[in-house]
Amino acid sequence: MDRDRPPRPPLLYGLDFTSAPSRRKPITLAGGRIEGGRLILERLDTLPDWAAFEAFLDDPAPKIAGFDLPLGMPLPLREHFGRDTAALAAHALERGPIAWVGELRRYRGPNGERELFRPCDRAARACSPMKGFYIPVARMYAQGAGRIRRAGWRVAWEPGPSERIAVEAYPALVAEAVTGDRSFRSYKSDTSPRPDHRPRREAIVAGLARPNAYGFTVENLPADLANDPGADRLDAVLALLQTAWASGRTDLGVPPGTDPFEGSISDPALLGTVAA
Question: What is the rounded average pLDDT for all residues in the chain?
Answer without folding.
Answer: 92
